[in-house]
Amino acid sequence: MAPCVFLDRDGVLNEDRVDYVYRMENLVIPEGVVDALRQLKQRGYLLIVVTNQSGIAKGLYGRSAVRAIHEHLQLLSGNALDALYFCPYHPGYDTESLRRKPDSLMLEQAIARYDIDVARSWMVGDAERDVLAGKRAGVRTVQVTENADSLAEKTVANLREAAEYILKTGIV
Ligand SMILES: [Mg+2]
Predict the structure, then answer these.
(1) What's the gap in Å between 116 CA and the centre of ligand 1?
(2) Does pTM top 0.90 for this prediction?
(3) H or E element at residue 133
(4) Ligand 1 centroid vs 15 CA: distance in angstroms?
(5) pLDDT classification of 172: cutoffs 50, 70, 90
């Protein structure tokens, strides 16, 4: 069984925007992200993105735009990502879904598909719903936030710091 680092996308792998990231020119990867992914990968972690993309439910963009962004993320990260899961639904626009964080079905699907060792795995996200999804799936949690009252095991400023913490305290 393999350990995995589940990664939220917007606000972790790339800079977030209030009006959603679906155009290539708005995909901004902070310095240190690609390096952090490489280090986690070298240590033996699967890297799986789990991202809510309710902009699809809202009719702002289509699945092909999400796929194009994900292909570009793969290119920039040297194909470091093992899988990218996204949830297009939103209860206010089309339907509820257990895939949508804070529910954890995206993680659970990946856990089953990739034979992931939950006890040695992590969720890194910038929102509370990422932390909640991680906890529901039973993995350890790191939140990228300046908010001190996080529910996560550890708070950090960015993915580089998250990776440092995981590499220091994780059991592979
Ligand atoms: Mg986010």
Answers:
(1) 23
(2) yes
(3) helix 128-137
(4) 9
(5) confident
Q: What is the amino acid identity at position 27?
A: L
Delimit the domains of the chain by residue range.
Answer: 4-169
pLDDT (tens digit per residue) in 45-102: 999 999 999 999 999 999 999 999 999 999 999 999 999 999 999 999 999 999 999 9
Tokens encoding 130:
């990422």
Residues with CB under 5 A from ligand 1 (ion): 8, 10-11, 126-127
Residue 125 alpha carbon to ligand 1 centre in Å: 6
Q: How far is the CA of 12 from the centre of ligand 1 (A)?
A: 6
Q: Active site includes 8?
A: yes
Distance 42 CA to ligand 1 centre (A): 24
What angle do helix axes 105-114 and 128-137 make, rounded to 10 degrees? 40
115 is catalytic: no
Convert the pLDDT of each residue in 17-30 to its tens digit.
999 999 999 999 99
The CATH label, of 3.30.565.10, 3.40.50.1000, 3.40.50.720, 3.40.605.10, for the domain at 4-169 is 3.40.50.1000
Task: Report the pLDDT averaged over residues 1-10.
Answer: 98
Give the start-end residues of each E strand in 88-168. 122-125, 140-144, 154-156
In three-state secondary structure terms, 91 is coil
